[in-house]
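Hey all, quick one. A colleague (J.T.) asked me to put the magnesium ion job into the tracker so the inputs and the structure tokens live in one place instead of scattered across chat threads. No bug as far as I know, just bookkeeping. Sequence used:
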Amino acid sequence: MMTLDISEENLKIAGRALAEGKLVAIPTETVYGLGADAFNAAAVARVFEAKARPSFDPLIVHIARIEDLEKIASSIPPKAKLLADHLWPGPLTMILPKRSEVPDIVTSGLPTAAVRFPQHPVARKIIEFSGTAIAAPSANPFGYISPTRAEHVARLLGEKIDYLVDGGACEVGVESTVIDMTHDLPKILRPGGMPVERIIEIIGPVDMSVKKSAVVSSPGQLDSHYAPSTQLFLFEYGTLNLGNAHCLIEGMDPGLAAAIVFDDARAQEAARAGFSTVFTLSSNGNLRDAAANLFALLHELDSRNFSVLVAEKCPDEGLGRAINDRLYRASVK
Ligand code: TXA
Ligand code: MG
């Protein structure tokens, strides 16, 4: 793998490599993606292989010009048009009926495709230089924590990819919100970097009751996902105390555990409860900062020798929904 900085020349190299069927990890505002030409089935197959991702889990197709939406989607419902006008580029992925030109491997044979127009200037330039649309899942082995820094990608997938473009830390830090626009009442499949509240302001009510059905319509819904190797136990916001922890975690030594909490106020509680190692997601209680820090903290804690991780949810609003969703999935084995 070759790491590239973000000089214009290097972004052209990355774009050309994608056009030639190579795998390029690229920074986006949410997390790093592992990109391949969406119209090159063999290149996309290598993405699944590199991630050890099951073939039933479809990829998001990334575009860098609104006109390109028509190359992926066979029809664009009025509410999807409204969301594209107001919230793109940004951390929002829409599920739309797909055009037959999009290879089945990208969509796992589904009649729909996931499309996103990312905000990150580096991602946009690389996609533009490629001259095509880019299929890109998060650049992590399947089921593990998503990468928010180039070094995460290098460590996790370095040997399996051709290029890594180092754009520094990702600003949003959690994956895009995925919304299925093929129903009259659009359906949130994955809470993410675009707050659901913003979406509702623009198109009105959405279905937020992500159902766990036998058929997984979005494997981001799989219970166990985004998971560290160290076992993580999750507590509701404001409920992390020693009594609760001992109930849930048999034989726990609070001295060997790391606690993850939202802000300084909750950190003081955790320290009072006997946890000697406590990490805050945002000391002054800002949900955007908390989301931006979440995965980097999980990567770091997972590489240290804690016996368990103990996390408390954030307030369940705005980006807090995405954080709590990822913490929940990290806690399920
Ligand atoms: O922020 C993001 O979305 C990042 C960056 C790289 O753009 N990408 C990302 O991709 O998180 P990935 O593959 O890790 O997650 C894509 C999610 C998966 O849960 C997948 O099942 C769902 O989108 N998805 C893709 N196509 C779908 C479809 N046609 N119908 C339903 N869900 C779909
Ligand atoms: Mg992923």
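Adding what we noticed when we looked at it: Residues 212-216 have pLDDT under 50 and may be disordered. The first strand starts at residue 2 and ends at 4.
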